[in-house]
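Give me the fold.
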Amino acid sequence: MPFEHRKRFVDSFTVLLLFAATPLFSSAFTLKMGLLKVGVPQPWEKSKKNLNYVRQAGVRQFISTYNRVKDLKGDELLWGDEIEYGIFVLDEQNKKIRLSLRAKEIMDELNEKEAASSETMEGCNWVPEYGAWMVEATPSRPYTGYTNDLLRVERNMRLRRRRILTVLHENEIAPTVAAFPRLGAMGDDGTVPPTPVGGDRTMSDYIGDGIINPHPRFGTLTANIRQRRGEKVNIRVPLFRDVNTPEYKDLEASHGGVDGCCGSD
């Protein structure tokens, strides 16, 4: 019996399951997850004269969008998830872990493979993140309000994990972490390939501009934050005053004094 006839005898939930299991209908799903366009961001000094326009245009767009959708009822629920992978290089000989700055290369290769298999129902979308060692991944199409989509979440996460492992070098790993614990503590020896500390973007004493994703948004964002503040971001925190902290190994315990440090009395 043709599918067009059979579908009259099954409920809508079964129809959803049939669609989810049949690649023939995958071309209908065109909505992609994640959005990051490549443009030419303005430096801070040039963008200042446009700030009022951006604010006013943002308000107008918000009001326009609100008026357009305020009366919508029964709109389809679409949602998703995102996972951040850190790409690290294991140096077993020297017992070190370094950042692998291959995120763009990995992302481009994965997206090429996704495009080649776009006829499949379940896929992945790979997008840039701030660090040149970071890859962000989402499902290629959003989840919906059907209970069956709850089963897709873990399945798609597993799919993303399997696919990213296929493009890693033998000495690379990709844990799902958003930060590298030793970032800024390894000098010029913290990345593969090596990158010198500092640069025009960050002017950092701890990291180099080379660890920023080459997408123009991220480097401009870093420089603009510093230029807007008029100074570098101060990330230093007070040392814990304890005999096990090298800087305070000879410190005598104070009694009743309060000096603002979390390790004091």
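The chain has seven helices and seven strands.
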